Amino acid sequence: MNVNTREPVYLQVVRHFKEQIAIGNFVAGQEIPSRRELAASLNINPNTAQKAYKEMEEQGLIHTERNFPSQITTNETILQAVRQELILAAVDTFVDAIRPINVPVDELLRVVKEKYSEEIREEEEK
Amino acid sequence: MMRYIKLVNFEINRFSKIYLSLLLITLVSQFAGVIIVTKSLLNDARDIMKEERLSEAAYITNYGGIDFNHIANSLLFVGPIALSAVALIFYIFLIWYRDWFGKNTFIYRLLMLPTSRLSIYLSKATSIFLMVLGLIAFQIIILPMENALFNSNVPQALLSEMSISTITIANPILSLIIPSTFTQFLISYGIGLMIMSILFTAIMFERSFRIKGIIMGLLYCGIAAVLFLAPVLMEIGNFYFYPNELFGLMLAIGIILTGLSVWLGAWLLKNRVTV
Amino acid sequence: MIEVKKISKNYGRKKILDDVSFTANKGEVTCLIGINGVGKTTTLKAIMGLTPYKGEILIDDQKMTKDSYEKITFIPDAPTMLPQMTIKQAMVFMSDFYTSWNPERANQLMGFFKLKEENRISELSKGNTAKLNLMLGLSLDVDYVLMDEPFSGIDMFSREQIADVFASHLIEDRGVIITTHEIGDIEHLIDKVILLDNGSVLKEFNTEEMREEEGKSVVDVMREVYQS
């Protein structure tokens, strides 16, 4: 995880988790590392890890029972919402970037479809 | 208390290489002195006996027997003692300055130990004091051996044997460092301790205030010297004391000066010294 | 909590420290930033009782005593053990005098830093000397760790190792104060920043708050403050 120094690090950690969930690396109910382990592996301040966990707890992404390791939520609604959130965020970024170039929507969608299929093909060949 | 002892042990260990060298040099030099000087004395005696055609008994009547004094006054004998004294006087300063100006600033470690600054001060003082005592003890041990070696190397007829105590008293340097009475011991080593503590405190002034501190240190030494010698100085001004009074006064002043120096030195080490 | 209350220190006419005040909390990393000579090291030495100062410094609401040295340690930017000692002897020295010495952690860090007990202090490279100092300081079960320029003048690989130890072993529940003149790549490890210039505090702020509220990195703030 590359750290951006202009954005709160704890929010970057939360986003990182959401990405992992959307990708499928973290599944429902999966145990996640402790705050300390996370800090050590991401090379961040344990306080930041603490804050990130608190935020994720509040957003319902994880839940921690006393004395047990934290787990990713099993709530499907939330998990789907995360996926949606990330898709929308990526699309947002893309649209903001491409809008100034003034491409007709059909041409745009065609290019996107080509590029996307190409990427999938390359991944399957690996 | 334990930490103080550990510190003393540590300080002595640090100096052990040089210390053992000093002991070794003393041993070798003094024994060499016995052998070499004896040989030279015997040669001289034989030369004289030949020239003046004296028998051994006549030689003794005219020139006196060959005694250990000649050895004790020789350079090979006195040299190492002087060397050791100089080394230890240097070390009174070096024992502090090496921690600041060594390749590594060890003073950080000492001042961050969970032990009082007074312990640190006292541990250095104790180490030097013990090492001085060690040197003296070593000399006391090897002197009889040297005397025995001497006695066995000189033909009976020419020999003028001396006892250890006579040797000690007759030699100015030996009589200074090997006291003959307990009172003498207290006086010599008491004064030594006082001087060391005054020097330590002067060093603390320098380490606290740098250049200003050197001046303060020198001033402190000066004032201490004047105070200690005050009774004697007053005698010069025609104000006389009985010997007992003089002794008592100087003893009291000496003890006060030592205590004050230790207290002041430790205080500076705790509150004013900078790394 | 370490409270530094209006400390000042003069060297002749020059004010090395001018009414410096700040707090460093347990469990947080506080960073004193400023160019060389601005008083950062002097501040740390003052906290450690290694230099006199005017003002007050409290550690957990108490003035510094000799026992405080079991609770707080200082890792200077210089070698401090005797050059002829081996690393083993240095560790024995520490364990002899400190009840807070933790031999398991010492061995752990020795392994992590790949230091060998038989090595002599005088033979260590600058990077290894820094790691040794770090190991000796962190092997004490103290509440507060003060580090002076832990990353300066050290090769990149050693820096990474040290940053690693920082994140994993160091902070835990401890209060850490570090000084540096370049924030470099360790911004994300720091909770609070204190900017110093000419012996006084120009600004004190919390890094995450600064990012959240103003979208500024530490470097951005430094640029702002030092250029005005």
UniProtKB/TrEMBL annotation, chain A:
Q: Which domain of life is it from?
A: Bacteria
Q: Which Pfam families match?
A: GntR (PF00392)
| Listed Gene3D superfamilies | Winged helix-like DNA-binding domain superfamily/Winged helix DNA-binding domain
Q: Does the keyword Transcription regulation apply?
A: yes
Which stretches make up the HTH gntR-type domain? 7-75
Q: Which InterPro entries match?
A: Tscrpt_reg_HTH_GntR, WH-like_DNA-bd_sf, WH_DNA-bd_sf
The record's GO molecular-function terms, alphabetically, read: DNA binding; DNA-binding transcription factor activity
Keywords, alphabetical: DNA-binding, Transcription, Transcription regulation
Q: What residue ranges are annotated as transmembrane? A: none
SMART domains noted in UniProt: HTH_GNTR
* UniProt name for this protein: GntR family transcriptional regulator
What is the source species? Peribacillus frigoritolerans
